[in-house]
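Proteins fold reproducibly. Next comes an illustrative record:
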Amino acid sequence: MKTVPIISAEKAASLVKDGDIILGGGFGMTGNPVNIIHELAKTKTKDLTFIANNVGEPNMGGGRLLNNGQLKKMIGSFFTSNREAVLAAQEGRVEYELLPQGTLAEAIRAGGAGIGGFYTPTSAGTLIAEGRETKMLNGKEQVFIEGIRGNVAIIRAWKADTAGNLQYRMTEQNFNRAMATAADIVIAEVQEIVPNGEIDPNEIHTPGCFVDYLVKRKLTEEDLGSSASVGSSKVIDEKRMNMAKRAFAELEKGDVVNLGIGIPTLVADLIKPEDGIILHTENGMLGVGPEPKDGGGAMYYPVNAGKVPVTALPGSSYFDSADSFAMIRGGHIDVAIMGGLEVDAQGNLANWSVPGKPLLGVGGAMDLASGAKKLIITLRHTDRDGGSKVVENCTLPITDFSCVDMLITELAVFKFIDGQLTLIEILPGSTLEEVREKTEAKFVEQLQ
């Protein structure tokens, strides 16, 4: 059995050369090889292409490389979580490419498997797909995505043995597992290294043949940034809670449900164990429980897609981001509840971009909009200027077409019945006259 060299974080950073393509593991700061990345930030290595779900947090992880001017290009799914990355992209100081989260994960998995590329329905017809080859497959327009490989993958695992076999902890598989297969040099930063044989072969997530170097560096709460502790940022008012309660009423026992950020997160607080609803989070967990009551953070608990520490219910499972989005695209998610910026009379959704605003990230929205069996959108009926968000035709960049099944605002509930926007319910505190006045889109009424 081979023995993988154990090196320092400084030595690992020295293996990265000018112009290299770097795969950086992690989802936010969870499972992020922050110690090696920070050592790389101390070097003069430049012109790097950094591929990751997001560019760390401000001045943390990849964010430190960005601030040092070491990045030539960023490829990722959700830059919005780091405003400095958004500003650098929008000001033209760094090149960037935005991919849906599931597309990014699958492209890395394809690259690691020696597959040149694949077709996916995610993003078809949207700005994200501009300039890409498309083809009609199984009656759907699908977009061709090339596989992704890097010169160096810098990943984080929890435990390794001296043969390089890796074991991840909780939701720390995320992008790490696929990235471990998809680079010429793979460096794994780990919490613990044990002798061969001490990790049960059944519990190895990444076989040692993929790993070239190990770096033992203990993770601290400081390394995890804002995920280090629970700090609820939910804004709860009566109207928001009414929307969450109405969305919850649509769920049935046994449903596998994905909740987006914002109002949809309130639905999680309404779910009880006896409801039999299984929550899915796209960064790699099925069976998500409530936030921990003891205030513990990501050192001790898994995190959800909002990067908030959560608990694991009995029967929960962990997996990586590529498998998570295979569940989504494969039709294994019964209901997705997401926020929105606009919904139009054709059931089109816009929820990821506002021209001129500091937003640069699509995350998993496109995959969920096209892959979930049922899509419920929650949004405020009007914007700050009083303009309707329920419009005849979307004016903002589209997330997906004809995808919305139900729309819930603080005023009313709409369904798309035979392709027609249909008002089915007035929510407390509103009137039919108010709904008519504040809705730009044409709709029919079938009030219950």
Q: What stands out?
A: The radius of gyration is 22 Å. The first strand starts at residue 21 and ends at 24.
